[in-house]
Amino acid sequence: MITASAPGKINLYFAVGPKLDNGYHEVCSVYLALNLREQVSVDFADQLSIGVTGSLSAGQLAGVPTDQTNLVVSAARLITDKTLRFEIDKQVPVAGGMGGGSADAAAALCATGELVGSSAKIDAVRLGADVPFAIMGGVALGMGVGEKLTPLELNTELHVVLITTNAGLSTPMVYSHLDELREKDGLVAEFSPPAPTDLIDALAAGDIASIARLAYNDLQRAALSLKPELQETIDAALNAGALTALVSGSGPTVFAIAESAESAERIAKRFGSSALITSGPSAGARLEN
Questions:
Q1: Active-site residue among 104, 130, 218, 227?
Q2: How far apart are CA 217 and CA 193, in angstroms?
Q3: How wide is the angle at C-alpha 3 spanned by C-alphas 110 and 1, nearest 5°?
Q4: DSSP H or E stretch at residue 134
């Protein structure tokens, strides 16, 4: 059995542009890979099976598909038509806007390629817009639908607290609701969002305060409209000392940037078992055995 891992992520910046004919939106994203990694183990088998374990709650683990709809199966089939079995060790909250499913797909590509001895180049964006970044890791600017990646420099470690909830938000639903809100306000996006140069400069300088001040998420408006209680989580994180707190991607996980590891501990204490402490950046998909 071959094991690989890949990182979850947050979007330090996420601007949403026009909707494309394929259903995706043009975006501008600054991805940060987290030291919160999914592991996927793959081996040959007589019939398909997917086992799911991990540090998440039983309810979260139960929400992971164990049939052909799981992205690990789609990923493996880009490499081989052989029947496989998978073991997934989940660490990234499910349906939390943190790319856990994309990390699973990236790890499955890595492990399956090693298992069958294939080094063929795979068009990973076919599996989802976040999969190419889960393969790359680190920090990156994402354009297009998020798949056109440019590595960015980050001259510091960012301490991050993730505040989770068991009730997920559907990513397509959040995008659709953002479109509705914009149309209602007459603010339909017409142009591709530009790169956030001030944030990119702050990352290169390792200026944590400026990074926090410039962090931004267009999808937050729609996520808060669908789940208004997330604003209470954001406010509580700020009151506990976070430099900033935002909905992660399409939500409902909220991430808080802390000034230090000690500050992250204090913020997490405010939320008890619903908080996860992590940091970034982290490496992309890699073999673990």
A1: 130
A2: 12
A3: 115
A4: helix 131-136
- Of 152, 180, 212, the position where a domain reaches its end is 152
User: Is 110 found in the same domain as 51?
Assistant: yes
- Compute the distance between CA of residue 181 and CA of residue 251 in angstroms, rounded to an integer: 17
Q: Residue 130 catalytic?
A: yes
Classify residue 286: in a domain, yes or no: no
Question: Tens digit of pLDDT for each residue in 225-242?
Answer: 999 999 999 999 999 999
The CATH number of whichever domain residue 85 belongs to comes to 3.30.230.10
Q: What CA–CA distance (Å, rounded) separates 269 from 238? A: 13
Which pTM does this prediction carry? Answer: 0.93
pLDDT, one tens digit per residue, over 61-91 is 998 999 999 999 999 999 999 999 999 999 9
Give the residues across from 158 on adjacent strands: 280
Residues 35 and 167 occupy one common structural domain: no
Q: What pLDDT was estimated at residue 177?
A: 96
Choice among 9, 90, 104, 218 that is catalytic: 9
Q: Mark whether 85 and 172 lie in a shared domain.
A: no
Residues 112 and 216 in one domain: no
Beta strands in 180-270 (DSSP E): 216-217, 244-247, 254-258
